[in-house]
Write a structure and sequence with these properties.
By secondary structure, the protein is an alpha+beta fold. It has two helices and two strands, in the order H-E-H-E. The chain is about 40% helix and about 15% strand. A two-stranded parallel sheet has the order 1-2. Strand 1 (about 25), helix 2 (about 35-50) and strand 2 form a beta-alpha-beta unit. Helix 1 (about 1-10) packs parallel to helix 2. The chain is elongated.
């Protein structure tokens, strides 16, 4: 999966020629093993390319809980 991320960043997405500028990943309320593998691939691609990673989650059980946000 990291190879796909790297290709989309360095060569473009599919046949569009548009290069990804970020890596976006997400998780369900309880991170699954598949989601963990996607995050690890994202980290590998980030280290290889330097692009930022953006993450999101559903609910408040995985991310940082911040009252009033």
């Amino acid at each position: 999966m990291s190879e796909l991320f790297i290709k989309e960043i360095t060569q473009g997405i599919g046949k569009t020629g548009v290069k990804a500028g970020v890596i976006k990943v997400g998780t369900s309320p309880k991170m699954t093993s598949y989601e963990e593998s996607v995050h690890k691939a994202a980290v590998m691609a980030q280290k290889a390319t330097g692009v930022p990673i953006i993450t999101h989650t559903e609910g408040r059980s995985v991310g940082l809980n911040r009252p009033n946000f």
